[in-house]
Every structure is written in structure tokens, then in C-alpha cells.
Specification:
By secondary structure, the protein is mainly beta. It is built from 2 helices and 39 strands. Strands 23, 24, 27, 32, 35, 36, 37 and 39 form an 8-stranded antiparallel beta sheet that branches. Strands 25, 26, 28, 29, 30, 31 and 38 form a 7-stranded mixed beta sheet that branches. The protein has a 4-stranded antiparallel beta sheet with strand order 2-3-4-5, with no helix packed on it. Strand 35 and strand 36 form a beta hairpin. It starts with 5 loop residues before the first helix and ends with a strand.
């Protein structure tokens, strides 16, 4: 544990926050800004699925699907569309209705849209089992309002509002076939002036079954008298971008394909949003599905030709562009410092960093942020009675993987209550398959194990690949995550991705010993693989348990 004197603690409380606020965080594993006036894609090498974006003055804000993970609807901020940092989270603690703490993998918050209207931020999203929700705030950092169910309906997803010139408010959305028994169509309904309630039924305005199957993820805009709906079609990993336009909000709409994979390795390219700059440039942000890493965010140049957008680079002049891998940075009128979303954490604050998410509605009894001691304490919370593996556990504290290759290290001091054998803590690489380094209290004392669980989402049991008795409750754990993909031609599918992880441990923080077996990393349910820490105990009747003190968590090359 890091030691601090009283004087140093007082100094840090008074000075460090203000200093740190002036120093942007820069990742050691992925930086999109190349420092020479250009950038490389993806600008966010992390799972910000179904991104949407808006501009307010000189500031850009992006949010994305968060599914079952809390805090939900993380909001990122940028000044130049390339360098991003965390700004807040619109759903800080729990999703409505507040249910038990079990993870609802792949459910809840799907494909949001973020807009700024009349001095307030709005975020709309679809819950595939309930309908369209909305939250709003005057400050993107919060507080955000409680979620409002704008339109109830099973299967309503991918919602986006439009405030029209005459004051009327509309909402475009898609349908999830898994719930609605209909997909590949786009629909519009009208909302009240407060944008809190649908006042008409939805009207289907576009059927993509024949030309643009699996059309979804619509974003709604108005420009030069035209209503525009940007949407992907053709499937997450294999699709393209379509734009609809009409002079009437309900159509009829004509369509045009404006972005496709072409001869590049950017498969998809899928759902995203259009934004302009104060200097008059146009840009489009979208995601690319890359399997275990999730859905990474790309930035594409865009221009208008005859009132149609062309996204990417249109080398053959057919109005449909190809994605770029490197390009000149947007002209926003100024140059801003390089920054990236936070990854590493010294746990020297009194709240969790915005990079962290739990797997379900947050229980305030799971953790203690002891900023004066520069550590995070995780309490050994009981697992569910019908526990099968970590897929069933809500109090996994996880963050996104953020580069093709990275090394995650953490220092943990484990203090179980000895009479409760089976208390566990450790470092996990989590997906539908997972692997972990686990410290566990047993009748023989502390034991370190490397475990894995294949098909965890199907209730499989963990297997143990290696064990080691421990004398010291403090240990350093490490996971190396690395991409072994072989790049192949776009016509053959883009890339053959194999992501692996290998674990090691250290007793002194200097010399690390490989431990256990490598595991092929697998994505979660609609999300990329995540890494993080946890602390649990068996589901037996006790009124207290032990804990794990996390000194730091570092993401490096």
C-alpha cells in the first residue's frame, strides 16, 4: 500500500486535483493524434458501440450504448474530434425499473442519440424490452434527470429526436426483430413539445427489406429544407451506410448508399452520427466491429454534393466513399493538446474514475474509495445463490480494452475473514469466455489460481490451470492482452482476428512469473472484452466479509 504522511496528504488534497485537471491524460497504448496534423483510425480504440455525437459551440460530445453496464451512457468530450476525455455519465447508478443486482447481459441501453436543444442536453435510447427513454441535463457533467419512458413498446430501439423549425418534435426509431418480430424498417412518431411523451403512433416511413436489409440505427437531421435520416444496413460486421432524404417528415424518402467498406479493411462501417465544425467542415463518426475488442470508433471526412452527403474518400466519384485509415485532422480553428480517455488509476480520489463500470445496477456497499490512503477497497460481496461462474456476478469492476495490445497490472492486498473459506479477489479478462488470476481463502490458507471459463454465458464451470500457495496477502497481478490477427484482403473478410491473454504474477512488483495457460479472448454480449477486478464470497448467511485493497491499476504497453 502506498504510504503518505499527514502533511503530504493535506498537500495532495489541496493541490493535486487542480494540477491534475490541467494535465490531460495520454494513453501509453493507443493515441489517434499523430502529432503532425493528421490522425489515425480508430480515433477511439475501445468499445463505444453505436456512437452518436453533437456539437455545442466549440465543444463536441459523444455517447454510446452501455447495455447492462453502470454507470451507463458514458459521455466523452472533445475539442477537435480526435482527442477525447471523459465528461460524465447520464445514468450514474441504476436503470429503470430498479431490479435485483443480477447482470442483464446485452439488454437495457441500446444505441443512444445525444442532442442539445434550448440550453439542455438530451439523450434518447431504446430499451428493447420496454421502449424509448430520455434523460436531460443543463450540464453534460450532470446532474441528469431521472429516465422518462417516452414511448412504451417492446422492440423499439435506436431512437433519435428532431426539433423542427415550427416547434414540433419528432422521434425516429427502428425495431429489434428479436422482440418486435419485425426489423429492417424505419419509423417516425411525433412527441409533445417537452419531448417527454409520444403523441402519435409510429408510422413506418422506409422499408429496407429488399435493398437495405437490417436497416437500423437511424439519426435524424434537417438541412436546406430536407429531412435526412442516416442509418446503417446490411449487418453489423458486413454492412454499409445509407442516407434517406425527403422534403416531408413522413416521406416519401429517397435513398443513397454513401459509405461502404470498398477495398479497405474497415468492415461494416456501421452506425454513427454527422457533425460539423465552426469552420464549416463536415465529419462523420461511426463504429467498426472487430470481435473481441468490440466496436471501435472511426472518424470520416464528409462533404455535401447536390444535397447528398458523401462520407470517406470517393475516389471513383460514384457518391459512395471508402473509409480512411489516416487523414488530416479537422479544422476547428485552433490546436488542442493530445489527450485520451483515462485508463490507469492510482485510486487517489474519493469517487471512481469514469472509465470504470459495474456489470449491473450499482450497490453502494460494494466498495470504498479511500482517497486519503490512495487505494480502492472492494468488499467481498456474496455471489447469487445459483452462482455458476463470474458471468452471474454483478460486482465486477471493469473497463474497456483500449488498444490492439496492452499490459494490465494491479497491486492487491487481500484480507479475507478466515472463517469464511471461499472469499476471492483477482484480475479478470471478461467476456463470454473469461480467464482470471484469483486469490482465494481456503482451509489451507491463501491460494493463487489461474482459472478460465469457456462458454461462461451458458453456465459452464471454471477450470483451474495452475495453483500456488501464498504466504503474503499482497501480490502483483498482470494480464497481457495481444492481437495475433493476420491482415488479409477486404474481399476475404478484412482480418482473421485472434486476441490472446497471458497472465503472470510477482511477489515484489519487479520480477513477474508467467502463470497458467494463454486464453483466446472473446467478446461479451454485445460488448467487447473488458478487464478489471472483483471481490466476492460464497452465498452463505453471514453479516460481514473481508475485502481487497487495490493499490493501483495500470494500463501500459
Amino acid at each position: 500500500m502506498k504510504k503518505t504522511t499527514i502533511a503530504l496528504a493535506l498537500c495532495s488534497l489541496l493541490t493535486v486535483p487542480s494540477l491534475r485537471a490541467q494535465e490531460p491524460y495520454v494513453s501509453k497504448v493507443w493515441v489517434a493524434d499523430q502529432g503532425n496534423g493528421t490522425y489515425k483510425n480508430p480515433v477511439l480504440y475501445a468499445d463505444y458501440s453505436d456512437p452518436d455525437i453533437c456539437r455545442v459551440g466549440d465543444d463536441y460530445y459523444l455517447t454510446s450504448s452501455s447495455f447492462n453496464c453502470l454507470p451507463g451512457l458514458q459521455v466523452l468530450h472533445s475539442k477537435d474530434l480526435v482527442n477525447w476525455s471523459f465528461a460524465g455519465a447520464a445514468i450514474p447508478y441504476a436503470l429503470p425499473p430498479v431490479t435485483d443486482e443480477r447482470p442483464e447481459h446485452g439488454n437495457r441501453v441500446w444505441a443512444p442519440s445525444i442532442r442539445h436543444h434550448n440550453g439542455e442536453f438530451y439523450i434518447f435510447w431504446g430499451d428493447p424490452d420496454q421502449g424509448a427513454f430520455m434523460v436531460k441535463a443543463k450540464d453534460v457533467k450532470g446532474p441528469w434527470s431521472e429516465p422518462v419512458l417516452v414511448k412504451a413498446g417492446k422492440g423499439i430501439i435506436d431512437t433519435c429526436p428532431l426539433w423542427d423549425d415550427d416547434g414540433r418534435v419528432y422521434m425516429v426509431h427502428a425495431y429489434a426483430g428479436s422482440r418486435a418480430q419485425l426489423k429492417s424498417v424505419i419509423a417516425i412518431c411525433e412527441l409533445n413539445k417537452e419531448a417527454t411523451k409520444a403523441i402519435t403512433q409510429s408510422r413506418i416511413i422506409f422499408d429496407g427489406h429488399e435493398a437495405h436489409q437490417t436497416c437500423e440505427g437511424p439519426k435524424f437531421y434537417k438541412r436546406n429544407g430536407y429531412y435526412y435520416i442516416f442509418h446503417p444496413a446490411g449487418g453489423v460486421a458486413t454492412g454499409w451506410q445509407v442516407v434517406l432524404r425527403s422534403k416531408n417528415v413522413y416521406g416519401p424518402y429517397e435513398w443513397k448508399t454513401v459509405l461502404a467498406q470498398g477495398k479497405t479493411n474497415v468492415n461494416g462501417p456501421h452506425q454513427g452520427g454527422w457533425v460539423d465544425t465552426p469552420t464549416g467542415e463536415d465529419w462523420f463518426m461511426h463504429f467498426q466491429d472487430v470481435g473481441a475488442y468490440g466496436r471501435l470508433v472511426h472518424l470520416q471526412p464528409m462533404k455535401w454534393v447536390n444535397d447528398w452527403p458523401v462520407i470517406g474518400v470517393d475516389k471513383d466519384g460514384d457518391g459512395c466513399g471508402d473509409p480512411v485509415l489516416t487523414y488530416k485532422k479537422p479544422n476547428v480553428g485552433k490546436t488542442y493538446p493530445i489527450c485520451t480517455p483515462q485508463e490507469s488509476d492510482e485510486f487517489d480520489g474519493y469517487t471512481l474514475g469514469l472509465q470504470w463500470q459495474w456489470h449491473a445496477n450499482i450497490n453502494e456497499k460494494w466498495y470504498y474509495c479511500a482517497g486519503d490512503q490512495s487505494m480502492l477497497r472492494l468488499y467481498s460481496y456474496p455471489v447469487p445463490n445459483d452462482y455458476k461462474n463470474l458471468w452471474d456476478v454483478s460486482n465486477l469492476l471493469l473497463q474497456k480494452t483500449t488498444a490492439p495490445s496492452q499490459t494490465i497490472s494491479t497491486k492487491i492486498t487481500f484480507k479475507p475473514i478466515n472463517k469464511y473459506q471461499g472469499e476471492r479477489t483477482g484480475l479478470v479478462v471478461m467476456g463470454m469466455d473469461y480467464a482470471a488470476l484469483v486469490m482465494e481463502s481456503t482451509k489451507e490458507g491463501l491460494v493463487l489460481s489461474q482459472v478460465e471459463c469457456k462458454k461462461a454465458d451458458r453456465g459452464s464451470k471454471e477450470t483451474v490451470n495452475a495453483t500456488l500457495p501464498l504466504q503474503d496477502p499482497t501480490i502483483y497481478l498482470r494480464a497481457k492482452v495481444y492481437d495475433t490477427s493476420k491482415k488479409i484482403a477486404a474481399s476475404e473478410g478484412g482480418s482473421d482476428q485472434i486476441v490472446m491473454c497471458q497472465f503472470s504474477y510477482s511477489l515484489d512488483g519487479k520480477k513477474y512469473q508467467s502463470f497458467g495457460q494463454p486464453l483466446q479472448v472473446r467478446e461479451g454480449k454485445w460488448i467487447g472484452a473488458k478487464t478489471g477486478i472483483f471481490c466476492t464470497r460464497p452465498a452463505i448467511v453471514t453479516n460481514d466479509g473481508g475485502w481487497a485493497d487495490i493499490d493501483w491499476y495500470r494500463v501500459e504497453k
